[in-house]
Q: What sequence folds into this?
C-alpha cells in the first residue's frame, strides 16, 4: 500500500486540498493512516466558474468523508501570476493554522513534481540550494510544511483513485504550455522517460541526495553565523578566510536571517549574491542594491546589510540611569579608553548617554585638539553604518566617551588623589570594538 511509503506523520494535521487528483489522493492516504486531518481549500478566483466548481467538489468530498473543512476565497489583482497565487495560498494556510491551533500542514507534491522542480530550477541557473527541490519537511513563519508524497509518483496516486472509484477535478490551466512547468510535465519529462525509463524517479532521487549535501553545508554556514554575525553586521576578516563557495552560502543565509520576513519572501538572486560577495574585497565605501530597498555596504572592519528605514537612535538618558554603563570604585586601572575609563567624580554630574547628533565634537584623549565627532569616527575607522549606533557619554555637545571607540578630554589619573576617581565601564559588547 502507498501509505507504507509515507514518512511518520503527526496525529493532527491540516492538508491543502485543491480538488485535483494529487490532493484528493493525499486526503485519502492521510485518512487511511488515521491522521486527524482538517482540509484547507483556497479558491483563488482565477478560473471563474471552474474555480467555484472546485470549491463545491471539495465541500462535497469532505462532507462525504466527514473531514472538517476550512475554505478561503481570494480576490485576484488585475494581472495575477503564479507568485501571487502561491503567496495568497500560503497566507491562508497560516491563517488556518492560527484558527485551528494546528501548525502542521501536508501538501500533495509528489515525486514527479519534485523532478519538474529540479529541472525548472536547473534551467533558471540555480545552485545547489535550488537543485534540492522541495523540502519534505520545513518550517516557515511558525508553520511546519510536510510533503509526505515525494516518494510516490503521479501515476501511482491516480491509479489508487481509479481503483477506488474516486473522481477528482482537473485544472484546465495545467494544460497551458505557456507555463514552463506545464511544458516540462507534458513534453519534456515524457520525452526523457522515453529515452531513459525511470528518468523522473532518478531526478527526484538526485534532488534527495543533493538535499543531504545541502543540509551539511547549511549547518556549516549557520555555525559561522552563530559565531560571527552581529545582526546586520558581519566581520570581514573571518569572512574573507572562507572559500568563495562557502562565502556566498554564508551571505545568502545571513540575508535571510537579518532581513527576516523580507528575506524569506525574496531571497538573493545569483547576481545579488555575487554583488554582495564582491564587497568583501572592495573599498570601505562600496555598496550594492538588495531586495526590498536594502543595501549591502562595505566598511573597514565589517560588511553591513542596511535596511530601507534606519533603526531609531538611542534617546538621551542621564548617565546614572543608563543600563549600558556601570560605575565602580577606582582600583588602580585607568581603563583602556574604549570599554572602560577612569573619570574624576566631579565630572559625573550632568553627563548623559545618547547616540550622535549634529554639532557633536570631541577633544581626543591626550591630543589637546578638538574635532567634529564625524571626523573622529572616520579617523578611528568606525564603519559608517555603525556610527549612529555608538553610545556616547556627553556633556552637552561635547563627547567624553564613545563606546568601544575612545575617550575624550578626561584628565589623567592623579594617583595622589586616586580616591577622587571612579571607573566607568560599558556593559555591552560592541562589534566595532571587537574587530579593531
A:
Amino acid at each position: 500500500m502507498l501509505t507504507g511509503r509515507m514518512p511518520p506523520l503527526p496525529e493532527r494535521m491540516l492538508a491543502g486540498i485543491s480538488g485535483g487528483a494529487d490532493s484528493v489522493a493525499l486526503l485519502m492516504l492521510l485518512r487511511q493512516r488515521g491522521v486527524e486531518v482538517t482540509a484547507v481549500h483556497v479558491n483563488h478566483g482565477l478560473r471563474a466558474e471552474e474555480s467555484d466548481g472546485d470549491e463545491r467538489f471539495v465541500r462535497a468530498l469532505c462532507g462525504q468523508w466527514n473531514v472538517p473543512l476550512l475554505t478561503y476565497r481570494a480576490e485576484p489583482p488585475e494581472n495575477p501570476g503564479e507568485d501571487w497565487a502561491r503567496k495568497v495560498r500560503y497566507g491562508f494556510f497560516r491563517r488556518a493554522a492560527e484558527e485551528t491551533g494546528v501548525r502542521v500542514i501536508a501538501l500533495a507534491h509528489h515525486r514527479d513534481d519534485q523532478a519538474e522542480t529540479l529541472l525548472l530550477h536547473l534551467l533558471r541557473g540555480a545552485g545547489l540550494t535550488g537543485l534540492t527541490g522541495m523540502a519534505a519537511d520545513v518550517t516557515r513563519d511558525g508553520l511546519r510544511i510536510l510533503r509526505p508524497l515525494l516518494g510516490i509518483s503521479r501515476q501511482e496516486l491516480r491509479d489508487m483513485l481509479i481503483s477506488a472509484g474516486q473522481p477528482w477535478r482537473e485544472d484546465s490551466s495545467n494544460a497551458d504550455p505557456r507555463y514552463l512547468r506545464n511544458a516540462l510535465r507534458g513534453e519534456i519529462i515524457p520525452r526523457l522517460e522515453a529515452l531513459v525509463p525511470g528518468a523522473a524517479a532518478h531526478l527526484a532521487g538526485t534532488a534527495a541526495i543533493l538535499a543531504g549535501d545541502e543540509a551539511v553545508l547549511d549547518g556549516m554556514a549557520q555555525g559561522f553565523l552563530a559565531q560571527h554575525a552581529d545582526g546586520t553586521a558581519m566581520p570581514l576578516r573571518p569572512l574573507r578566510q572562507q572559500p568563495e563557495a562557502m562565502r556566498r552560502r554564508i551571505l545568502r543565509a545571513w540575508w535571510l536571517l537579518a532581513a527576516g520576513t523580507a528575506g524569506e519572501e525574496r531571497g538573493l538572486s545569483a547576481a545579488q549574491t555575487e554583488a554582495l560577495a564582491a564587497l568583501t574585497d572592495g573599498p570601505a565605501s562600496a555598496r550594492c542594491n538588495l531586495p526590498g530597498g536594502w543595501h549591502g555596504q562595505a566598511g573597514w572592519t565589517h560588511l553591513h546589510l542596511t535596511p530601507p528605514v534606519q533603526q531609531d537612535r538611542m534617546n538621551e538618558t542621564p548617565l546614572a540611569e543608563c543600563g549600558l554603563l556601570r560605575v565602580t570604585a577606582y582600583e588602580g586601572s585607568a581603563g583602556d579608553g574604549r570599554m572602560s575609563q577612569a573619570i574624576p567624580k566631579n565630572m559625573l554630574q550632568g553627563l548623559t548617554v545618547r547616540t550622535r547628533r549634529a554639532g557633536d565634537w570631541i577633544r581626543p584623549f591626550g591630543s589637546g585638539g578638538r574635532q567634529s565627532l564625524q571626523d573622529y569616527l572616520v579617523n578611528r575607522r568606525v564603519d559608517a553604518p555603525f556610527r549612529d549606533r555608538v553610545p556616547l557619554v556627553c556633556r552637552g555637545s561635547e563627547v567624553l566617551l564613545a563606546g568601544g571607540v575612545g575617550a575624550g578630554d578626561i584628565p589623567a589619573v592623579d594617583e595622589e588623589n586616586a580616591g577622587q576617581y571612579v571607573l566607568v565601564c560599558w556593559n555591552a559588547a560592541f562589534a566595532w570594538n571587537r574587530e579593531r
User: Anything to note?
Assistant: The two ends are 63 Å apart (CA to CA). The first strand starts at residue 12 and ends at 16. The chain has a mean pLDDT of 90. DSSP finds 15 helices and 20 strands in the chain.
